[in-house]
Amino acid sequence: MSHDANIPRTGLARALSKLGFCSRAQAFSLIRSGRVRLNQRPVCDPETPVRLGKDRIEVDGKQVDPAAKVYLMLNKPRGLVTTRSDEKGRETIYSLLPDSADWLAPVGRLDMASEGLLLLTNDSAWGARIASPEAHIEKTYHVQIDAVADQKLVDRLRKGVSTEDGEFLLIKRISILRLGKKNSWLEIVLDEGKNRHIRRMFSELGIEVRRLLRVAIGSVELGDLPKGKTRPLTEEEKETLAAAKK
Question: Are 30 and 48 within 8 A, CB to CB?
Fold first, then answer.
């Protein structure tokens, strides 16, 4: 058996994503439009097997080399969607990213009305580990609601909330940050992240979420990063998150 036979293979579209060149969806489009060559031959099947580090991949005649790994934190403002393009024409988080950055993918999501800490990377393996439900990485949110919170509400949320469609939503920790005359700020920690998790919990209780701000993922904190700005993760932050799997 030749040495090459032992080299792991991956689909061409996934290979372009792993190299940090583009997303898998973009790679499918590039390949099917005939813009990609594998070992100097045109390829139109996105699932064509590739030996990363061995085979030569070209896009528009230029060789694709592994991109430098990028790990960014973004303070996402409200009103932006967490996608590269939006079919409704809404502004996306990519309008905030440096023009020189390689293709980046969000690690998890924040819905359009939510704000705060969002991680982005072109290291798909690292991002998948962080976003994996099995990792149980804590995510901390500061949440403003249109009700004056009391111990009864806190205890109710700690017990979990069943939705109309039969899903049971849990939180890990909750505390009251401050109380107003008609609203409250709570700190809520999740170690799972279902779609619109916090908003749906309060909606079932007849309470509106006015603001939802993610302030930490694991031990990585948003800190004083200005809204709409990015900064690279430190090596310690990157490694701490990657090692957080329980």
Answer: no
CA dist 49 → 7, 16, 122, 167, 233 (Å): 11, 12, 21, 39, 33
What percent of the chain lies above the pLDDT cut of 90?
A: 62
Gap between the Cα atoms of 97 and 230, Å rounded: 7
Among 21-25, 32-36, 106-110, which range has the highest average pLDDT?
32-36
Q: What is the DSSP letter of 92?
A: B
SS3 23: coil
Instruction: Decide if 60 is catalytic.
Output: no
| Interval 79-120: pLDDT, tens | 999 887 777 888 889 889 876 565 788 998 899 999 999 999
Nearest to 118 by CA among 128, 107, 127, 126: 107
Q: Which of 13, 49, 51, 9 is nearest to 31 (CA)?
A: 13
Listed residue (122, 190, 120) closest to 158, CA to CA = 190
Give the DSSP per-residue string, 206-245: T--EEEEEEEEETTEE-TTPPTT-EEEPPHHHHHHHHT--
Q: b vs e for 69-93, b when ≥16 Cβ sit within 10 Å of the residue's Cβ?
A: ebbbbbbbeeebbbebeeeeeeebb
- The string of pLDDT tens digits covering residues 122-165 is 888 888 888 887 888 999 999 999 999 999 999 999 999 998 88
pTM of the model: 0.79
Q: Which residue of the set 111, 123, 146, 150 is catalytic?
A: 111
What integer pLDDT is reported at residue 50 of this predicted model? 92
Nearest-Å Rg of the Cα atoms of the chain is: 21
